[in-house]
Design a protein that fits this description.
alpha/beta; Rossmann fold; 7-stranded parallel beta sheet; two-stranded parallel ribbon; globular
């Protein structure tokens, strides 16, 4: 059993990580400011008190160094998910997102270093690649970030490497590609495309597509990302490295709409509008490095993940009504 800190642990990916860690017997501390994370995301076990007893929740912000010091005290491993994880929100509010994604990350690194944390795994993003040439995306491609969010994630990757090389704090950066699944918020103005599409189809509403729908993404079910994080905690050759975490496939938004129509039984057409500033045209990962270094394999393929996600939101929306 190990002691984990999951920053942003009440959010989408963070809460899925917390659930798996608790089920395998680890002790978990969550640090979250609940600006987007939800307390209900941490209510997985109902009456399983023996699991809940291993969960500690700190309400606080990584923007405060003393909070990060308190949160990392006695911790073996940090899974750093806390962020303002939105390209359009970073375009609208670059200073706000920089405070969270850069200043907050640096606070956490300093606190983890001083607390003697064994390893910190950082949630980076495929957004760093921008529209750089070359597909599928290999980690050797020179990034061409198109948004403040992408710049912030790229800068944080450099901080990870520097803290490993200068201070000996083991760090690993994982570039997530379009993660989806349970606990993702479909309601936010900045929500990701899959929960928004599902929400629209289940409500008999038209989903909105920004652009012509021929932009493509490497959609990755959240269980694959959880699995990759757990591998990154233990892989002996992972420290100091940056790796893609995805399914290694490519799907256009129009193809995604077709799959979701079949799964939900909807025949509603989409509305198309102008592309959003900062959005990349295509995204597709080469996952050979994570396969080699982490022994990573895809746990849940795309269509199975979409079915699981539709089932989750169908239940969530039924409970709301």
């Amino acid at each position: 059993m190990a002691n984990f800190l999951v920053t942003g642990g009440a959010g989408f990916i963070g809460s899925n990580l917390v659930r798996v860690l608790l089920r395998r017997g680890d002790s978990v501390r969550v640090l979250d400011n609940f600006s987007t994370g939800k307390r209900k995301n941490l209510n997985f076990f109902g009456t399983s008190d023996h699991l809940s007893a291993n969960l500690e929740v700190f309400e606080g912000d990584i923007g405060d160094l003393s909070t990060c010091r308190n949160a990392t005290d006695g911790i073996d491993y940090v899974l750093h998910q806390a962020a303002i994880p939105s390209v359009p929100r970073s375009v609208a509010f670059p200073l706000e997102s920089n405070r969270a994604n850069i200043d907050g990350t640096l606070n956490l690194l300093v606190a983890a270093r001083d607390a003697g944390v064994k390893r910190l795994v950082f949630a980076s993003s495929s957004a760093v690649y921008g529209n750089a040439p070359g597909f599928p995306r290999k980690e050797t491609i020179a990034p061409e970030p198109l948004s403040p969010y992408a710049v912030q994630k790229m800068a944080a990757e450099h901080y990870m490497r520097v803290f490993y090389e200068l201070y000996g704090l083991e760090t690993v950066s994982l570039r997530y590609f379009n993660v989806f699944g349970p606990h993702q918020d479909p309601e936010s103005e900045y929500a990701a495309v899959i929960p928004k599409f599902i929400r629209a189809f289940l409500a008999d509403e038209k989903p909105t597509v920004y652009g012509d729908g021929e932009q493509s993404r490497d959609f990755t079910y959240v269980d694959n990302v959880v699995y990759g994080n757990l591998l990154a905690v233990e892989a002996p050759d992972a420290p100091g490295k940056t790796m893609n975490l995805a399914c290694g496939g490519q799907l256009t938004l129009n193809q995604l709409l077709g799959l979701l129509r079949r799964i939900t039984g909807s025949d509603i057409k989409a509305d198309y509008t102008e592309p959003r500033p900062g959005d990349v045209r295509h995204s597709w990962a080469d996952i050979s490095l994570s396969e080699q270094v982490l022994n990573y394999t895809i746990q849940v393929p795309l269509e199975e993940g979409l079915q699981k996600t539709v089932d989750y939101f169908r239940k969530e929306f039924a409970d709301e009504t």
